[in-house]
C-alpha cells in the first residue's frame, strides 16, 4: 500500500485557513452578569421566605393533631422539614426568574440606549431605571399611584447609579493624572492608586 504524496493529501494546517468565515457576536458582559446576580439574589431570598412560609403553614395546619409518641414527633418534624425545603425551592425558583428577568430588562435597556445614541450614555442607568420600573408596573398591573411611585423609585435608583458611575470615572481620571504628573502635591498612593 502506498502513502499519498504531500501534494495530494490535505495538510492539517489547511483546516485552520485564515480565509475562513467567522461569525462573531459581541455581547456585553452586563447582559450576563446582572441577570445572573439578580437570579441568585432572588433564589436566596425566595429560599428563606418560602421555607419560612411553608413552616408556618405546616404548623398552622397541624396544630390540632400533635403527635403523642417519639416516633410520631420524628415523622412530624421530618415532614415539616421536607415541606419547608419544597416551599423554599418553589418560591426561590419563582423569585429567581422574576428578579433575573428584571435584571435582564435593566441591562437590555442600558445596551439599547448605548446602541441608540452615544449622547445618552451619561444617563443610561437613569433611563434603564425608568424603563424597568415602567415595565414592572405594567406587568404587575400596579395602580396609577403605585405605578407612579415605582417609576419615581426606579428613576431615583438609576439616577444614583449614574451619579456613582460619573464619580468613579472622575476619580479614575484624577488618579491617572496624579500618576502622570509624578506626585505634585498628593501622590497617587494617597488618592488610591497603586504604589
Automatic annotation (TrEMBL):
The chain crosses the membrane at residues 31-48. Residues 175-195 are annotated as: Disordered. This is Mitochondrial import inner membrane translocase subunit TIM22. Keywords: Membrane, Transmembrane, Transmembrane helix. Residues 175-189 have a biased composition (Basic and acidic residues).
Amino acid at each position: 500500500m502506498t502513502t499519498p504524496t504531500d501534494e495530494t493529501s490535505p495538510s492539517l494546517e489547511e483546516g485552520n485557513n485564515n480565509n475562513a468565515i467567522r461569525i462573531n457576536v459581541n455581547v456585553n458582559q452586563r447582559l450576563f452578569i446582572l441577570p445572573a446576580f439578580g437570579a441568585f439574589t432572588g433564589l436566596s431570598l425566595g429560599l428563606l421566605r418560602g421555607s419560612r412560609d411553608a413552616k408556618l403553614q405546616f404548623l398552622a395546619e397541624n396544630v390540632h393533631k400533635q403527635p403523642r409518641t417519639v416516633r410520631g414527633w420524628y415523622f412530624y418534624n421530618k415532614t415539616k422539614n421536607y415541606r419547608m425545603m419544597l416551599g423554599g425551592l418553589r418560591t426561590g425558583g419563582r423569585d429567581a426568574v422574576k428578579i433575573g428577568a428584571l435584571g435582564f430588562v435593566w441591562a437590555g435597556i442600558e445596551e439599547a440606549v448605548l446602541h441608540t445614541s452615544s449622547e445618552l450614555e451619561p444617563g443610561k442607568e437613569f433611563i434603564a431605571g425608568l424603563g424597568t420600573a415602567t415595565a414592572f408596573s405594567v406587568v404587575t398591573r400596579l395602580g396609577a399611584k403605585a405605578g407612579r411611585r415605582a417609576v419615581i423609585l426606579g428613576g431615583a435608583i438609576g439616577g444614583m447609579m449614574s451619579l456613582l458611575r460619573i464619580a468613579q470615572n472622575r476619580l479614575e481620571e484624577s488618579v491617572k493624572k496624579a500618576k502622570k504628573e509624578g506626585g505634585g502635591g498628593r501622590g497617587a498612593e494617597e488618592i488610591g492608586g497603586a504604589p
